[in-house]
């Protein structure tokens, strides 16, 4: 069936597959390095306690069968090793069925992590990675030409990512409609990057052009993905450029990078040959069993697409939602509302036995979220700092922090090694603090003049207490100070 094969997309498939494996590798390494303090047996939100009250079919995960920190770590590092093997090209050297099993194993392992990860894994890019990873099972390897049906499903996923994000903005905050959201967004986004300060200080007319360009890229361009070539390649190129702009301006884990990879798969050989020398590839016929599996999979995606399509058309559109516990065919979107001011929760400790007005408090520094006003924001994406991201949500509303803030502070009072590894530095290296507390600050980017004078990227003002001073044996709750 020559119509089933699309050899003109062999390079786009290779970029997507190798890139998706890199994202898997990043995700598994991040899970391995952070899980003990977050969801481990002695973590803030332990997996055993979570799975005890839930059925397998509600949260399908291998860790329903058995959980231990050693087993979880082993699964993470095995997933990282398998991902690295795919990046190195192993999936193209083995038989097609073996390559499919490799992608299936990666998906099952990461699904098992996400479904027990609780609030730490409640991000849209987790579902995006799982949905992309499941598509990879049916994209084939170097032994067959890319199946056109799977390539169309990849474009359908990319369309939902972009168009869903565009719709949620137009239906959400009025600043998207009056083109002023980027007056604030670069400053108030969850985790600014090293260039965010400079983006924030761009002229306001340019910010308005940025928003208008975003609307065009997300509400108009995605339809071009389903047009004949070279229109589809041009649409993909526009998406790639706009996503690279987002990569430069912030830290959004692997969301932007995965979107770029999905767009690469829509660029055909003829369009690419206009800028790069690309050798022709033979149309390698797919075995009948693989063709049948792709057809069955495409039919299943078509059925499952009813719910995200209905959601996109609804005036009550929800963003970043999975309609099934396997995170297949999801709905996406981000920043339906934009904060005008930035607040940060700053955690402090003291070794003093008695608290007075002269007590010296030392601040805990996080790796990614703003803390010290003199510290330039760092680039972390596509790596995901889960605690740092949840601290941003905690500053918006104490309700986000209720399940884990007290366990976090309690572990700081014990100098818990896995918890301290999530932080940039520990101000109490020799002995745990006697008390810890959390303060709420208003942050804003400094002006050009303030940066030159004070060598500070941020200016901050104390808003008030977030968690009153607590010590072991006496706990408190966020926003009761």
TrEMBL record:
Protein's GO biological process: protein maturation
Alphabetized Pfam families for the sequence: LMF1, LMF1_C
Highest rank taxon of the organism: Bacteria
Transmembrane regions listed in the UniProt entry: 20-39, 71-91, 97-121, 133-154, 231-248, 255-276, 288-309, 385-405
Keywords: Endoplasmic reticulum, Membrane, Transmembrane, Transmembrane helix
Signal peptide: none
InterPro entries tied to this protein: LMF, LMF1/2_C, LMF1/2_N
Membrane topology: Multi-pass membrane protein
Family named by the database record: Belongs to the lipase maturation factor family.
Species the sequence originates in: Mycobacterium gastri
Name of the protein this chain belongs to: Lipase maturation factor family protein
């Amino acid at each position: 069936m020559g119509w089933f094969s699309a050899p003109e997309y062999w390079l786009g498939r290779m970029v997507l597959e190798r890139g998706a494996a890199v994202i898997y590798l990043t995700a598994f390494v991040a899970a391995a390095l952070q899980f003990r303090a977050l969801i481990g047996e002695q973590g803030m939100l332990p997996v055993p306690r979570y799975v005890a009250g839930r059925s397998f079919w509600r949260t399908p995960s291998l860790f329903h069968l058995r959980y231990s920190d050693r087993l979880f770590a082993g699964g993470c590092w095995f997933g990282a090793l398998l991902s690295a093997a795919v990046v190195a090209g192993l999936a193209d050297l083995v038989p097609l069925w073996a390559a499919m099993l490799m992608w299936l194993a990666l998906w099952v392992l990461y699904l098992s992590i996400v479904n027990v990860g609780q609030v730490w894994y409640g991000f849209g890019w987790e579902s995006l990675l799982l949905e992309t990873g499941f598509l990879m099972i049916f994209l084939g390897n170097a032994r067959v030409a890319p199946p056109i049906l799977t390539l169309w499903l990849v474009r359908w996923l990319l369309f939902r990512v972009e168009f869903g994000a565009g719709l949620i903005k137009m239906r959400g905050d009025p600043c998207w409609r009056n083109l002023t959201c980027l007056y604030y967004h670069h400053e108030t986004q969850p985790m600014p990057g090293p260039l965010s300060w400079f983006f924030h200080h761009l002229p306001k007319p340019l910010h308005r052009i940025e928003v208008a360009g975003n609307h065009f890229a997300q509400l108009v361009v995605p339809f071009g993905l389903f047009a004949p070539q070279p229109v589809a390649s041009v649409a993909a190129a526009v998406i790639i450029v706009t996503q690279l702009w987002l990569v430069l301006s912030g830290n959004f884990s692997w969301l932007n990078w995965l979107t770029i990879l999905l767009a690469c798969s829509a660029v055909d050989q003829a369009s690419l040959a206009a800028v790069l020398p690309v050798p022709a590839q033979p149309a390698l016929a797919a075995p009948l069993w693989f063709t049948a599996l792709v057809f069955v999979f495409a039919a299943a995606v078509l059925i499952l697409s009813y719910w995200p399509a209905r959601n996109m058309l609804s005036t009550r559109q929800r963003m970043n939602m999975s309609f099934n516990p396997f995170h297949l065919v999801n709905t996406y979107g981000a920043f339906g509302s934009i904060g005008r001011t930035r607040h940060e929760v700053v955690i402090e400790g003291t070794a003093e036995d008695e608290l007075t007005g002269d007590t010296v408090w030392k601040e805990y520094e996080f790796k990614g979220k703003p803390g010290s006003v003199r510290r330039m924001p760092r680039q972390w994406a596509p790596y995901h700092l889960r605690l740092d991201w949840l601290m941003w949500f905690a500053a918006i509303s104490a309700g986000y922090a209720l399940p884990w803030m007290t366990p976090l502070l309690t572990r700081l009072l014990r100098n818990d090694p896995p918890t301290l590894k999530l932080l940039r530095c520990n101000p109490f290296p020799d002995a745990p603090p006697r008390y810890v507390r959390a303060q709420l600050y208003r942050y804003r980017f400094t002006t050009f003049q303030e940066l030159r004078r004070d060598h500070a990227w941020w200016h901050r003002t104390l808003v008030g207490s977030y968690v009153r001073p607590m010590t072991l044996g006496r706990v408190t709750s966020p926003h009761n100070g």
